[in-house]
Amino acid sequence: MESCFHCGDDCTTTVIEHQDKHFCCHGCKTVFDILNDNDLSYYYELEQSPGTTPSRFEGKFDFLENDVIAKKLLEFDEQDVQVVTFVVPSIHCSSCIWVLENLNKLHPDVTTSQVNFPKKSVRITYNSAQLNLHQLVLLLCKIGYEPYISLDDATKKTSTIDRSLIYKLGIAGFAFGNIMFLSFPEYFEVSEFWLERYKYIFRWLMFVFALPVVFYSGSDYLVSAYKSVRSRMLNIDVPIAIGILVLFLRSTVEIVMDWGTGFLDSMAGLVFFLLLGKFFQQKTYSFLSFERDYKSYFPIAVTRLNKADSSKEEQAQVYDLVAGDRIVIRNGELIPVDGILIKGNALIDYSFVTGEAEPVSKNSGDKLYAGGRQQAGVIELDVLKSVEQSYLTQLWSNEIFNKSAESLFQSITDQISKRFTISILSIAVLATMFWLWYQPSLALNVFTAVLIVACPCAIALAAPFTLGNLLRIFGKHKFYLKNSSIIEQLASIDTVVFDKTGTLTTSHKSVITYEGIALTVDEQSLLTSTLRASNHPLSRSLYGMLQENNISSLDDFSEEIGKGITGVLNNNRVKVGSYAFVSDGSSAFAKADLNQTTVHISANEVYKGCYVFYNEYRDGMKHVFDTLSVDCDLAVLSGDNEGEKEHLENILPKNTALVFNQKPGDKLNYIKELQSHGKKVLMIGDGLNDAGALAQSNVGLVISENVNVFSPACDGIIDATRFKNITTFIDLSRKGKKVIQYAFIFSLIYNLVGLGFAISGHLAPVVAAILMPLSSISIVVFTTIYTYFLGRKLNHKTTI
Amino acid sequence: MNIIYMLLAISVCVAVIFFVAFILSVKKGQYDDTYTPSVRMLFDDELIKEKGTDSAKSNQPILLKDQLK
Asked: Where are the transmembrane segments (chain B) (predicted)?
């Protein structure tokens, strides 16, 4: 089989030969022609088959002709120069970067375009006198780079990037290097003539360099320590802040009183290493968003019929819709507001918002809820409520979406830091009391020395580096987490709740069985020909399963939306559809279970039988459930009916709770109920209907067939192909927690050695300057090597 | 021995110059996207090579400008 020169897919149905190359469809061929004729064929030299098949976009972006909507998307707009940034999910390789940055070759009015690959976005400057936003978007669509524009783009205008951590790290590193440099001479050549003479300048220079380190770079630790003392929760920042302050104050006193050089280099090094840990932990996946709500799923605009003259269509912003407006929804478009169906046949796919697996057909006069996707033809509906008041969007007014996420969870570092802080404070006091009695002049010296060496730099670095490493390892295996503290929470879960539709099942149904009288060859050929003409999702998947035998053009074909289809050839008539449509009232055959998805067949008005569709469950589901059931409670929540209950009971472990007909709010409450019994819940879902449960649960993960398209707010996103690895991910998180514990023991040994120096009154600046970086670096090396070995195991498992 | 003062002043000045350069580069957004420039860098050579060869090109290019109207 040939694979497409443009997109690399196998050419299954048709092969188009063009310029000695094979293409899978005309879309791909057109893109090739466009690029080839505009001197952009280098696109195909950079990477093998880099393209994406352009999707259907006629009319989809008409709303951009509306200036008010277009203005909302623009970043800059003055004197014929407009700047716009689009998110383009199909950016995936260096060819993509190249072709998008050479847009000016395709259209002379594009001035510059710049791709941000990690964000999958492109920023385009163009001449708006010659080219408007709509034409620009069409240009992108034509070469297969369709931008993703949603309601979210209309609301947020300026996003400021927080770069303060880079500044802080830069300043700390700069000061650390310079102070180290300046303090070196005094460590080795103590009695040199010129050193004696100039040491004061050296010391005061160090002091000047140290000021921004304490008061800018270290400010986070000081503020956090102050807050934690006030709320009486001693976190790890308290001993760190004590360490920083004591180091700084004692050094200042030593410099002012001309007692010595102080410990400013250790202090700057400490802050630098801590910030480095923080920076390392901040692995972000800029092309993913974990904070999305319905806004990034909903369209920005919709076609509205003019009130005065209802034959005129206009593009209206979704936020401007009010009750009473009449809107038009085309095939494949999303219903953005609650409304009443007025005209047309509605077949609405609610699977993403309610979890119902099957598209629902509605008749005029029925209420349609926001979030459904129309699957058949054009419909008109009257708006009942504005977008914020719609049934679905009201879920986001639940208090769980306003609660700050970092509230109650106590990390493993926080757990030990309380005991740690109290014990070093008491050691410091005891040691001081001893020296007050033994040799009072050294007492203050010892007190500060204990606080300095006890500063838990290594402890504070253990978690960031272990978790940061794991985060990267997970990312390589297509398991993307919002931040590293999720790993610790994942390690402590004891209950796992799954959504059914879309999470346990794949999005396409392919297990189909036939029940009834066997069809003759002629009937089968007629059936396939009939199915071929229909666009209904069930017809498509049934057609895909049946062998292509003798496709012939039909004499007559009719489709009654929501009921079924009829095909006629050589006076033979076949009817395919719902039981009521096919059987014509005769109840000779027992009605199949209503909850099952069935397609019934009759030939020449004689009922033949039905095809039953089963949900196809994800690869390795049984393995995941069996492994998890060893140490976790399991549950499956579904917004769907009970049709699959028996089937699920057979495959899943006996103690799995199965709950059906759950509305989005019910799912949230189910999780809440589990948590009130002290359970730590992991929720795994996929759609908007799980959004509440995902926010309520301790850890909410989303399964996604394509990580670039919309997924609701969550703590992590798993690529659907890695579903079977979930157990390994949880296992690795638990092992990661172990690594942190080992690192703690390791760093406590360093602290004890340091305390030995401190209590005996021998802590020279050079000892501190060696001990502190040594402990930090060895902890970093230890955790990195250990997690690397853990990651190797994961590689091994996924290759099997 | 007063040369020490001058050497110190120079070394600190050089350090500060680099430090300011770093801060400015962060401010200008050079650290916001650390991946794309590494790929973009490799394109420039190829573009020059290509310009030399595009004299013999197909006679009827599809003009997107016309298609969009």
From this structure: 6-26
Residue B21 binned pLDDT confidence (cut-offs 50, 70, 90): very high
Q: What is d(CA A535, CA B43) in angstroms, rounded to the nearest whole number?
A: 44
Q: Please, what is the angle between helix A457-476 and helix A765-799, to 10°?
A: 20
Contact A101 B40 (CB under 8 A): yes
B29·A205 Cβ contact <8 A: no
Interface of B with A in 30-59 (CB under 8 A): 31-36, 39-40, 42-43, 46-47, 50, 54, 57-58
Phi, psi (degrees; rounded to nearest 5) at A245: -65, -45
Residue, of B5 and B57, whose pLDDT is higher = B5
Residue A639 to residues A709, A742, A753: CA-CA distances in angstroms? 22, 44, 59
Q: What is the pLDDT of residue A401?
A: 64
How confident is the model at residue A403, as a pLDDT? 56
> Which domains does chain A possess?
1-53 (2.30.170), 62-155 (3.30.70.100), 164-284+412-465+735-799 (no CATH), 485-506+618-726 (3.40.50.1000), 511-614 (3.40.1110.10)
- For residue B47, the chain A residues in CB contact (below 8 A) are 42
Q: Quick check: ipTM above 0.90?
A: no
Shortest Cα–Cα distance, A129 to chain B (Å): 14
CA dist A290 and A371 (Å) reads: 20
Q: Does B66 touch chain A (CB under 8 A)?
A: no
Give DSSP secondary structure letters for A529-591: HHHHH---HHHHHHHHHS--------SEEEEETTTEEEEEETTEEEEEE-HHHHHTT---SPP
Better-predicted residue by pLDDT, B26 or A554: B26
Tell me what pLDDT residue B20 has. Answer: 93
Chain A residue with CA closest to B27: the answer is A163
Average pLDDT over residues B23-33: 84
Residues of chain A contacting B8 with CB distance shorter than 8 Å:
201, 205
Residues of chain A with pLDDT under 70: 1, 11-14, 56-58, 154-161, 189-192, 194-195, 283-293, 310, 352, 354-358, 395-410, 507-511, 535-537, 540, 547-552, 561-562, 584-596, 707-710, 797-800
Beta carbons within 8 Å of A297's beta carbon, 6+ residues apart: A150, A151, A334, A352, A371, A688, A710
* Contacting residues of B for A161, CB less than 8 Å apart: 29, 32
pLDDT of residue A56: 67
State the pLDDT at residue A509: 55
CA distance A727 to A536: 37
Number of Cβ pairs closer than 8 Å across A and B?
82
In whole angstroms, give the CA distance from residue B22 to residue A168: 12
A118 in reach of chain B (CB within 8 A):
yes
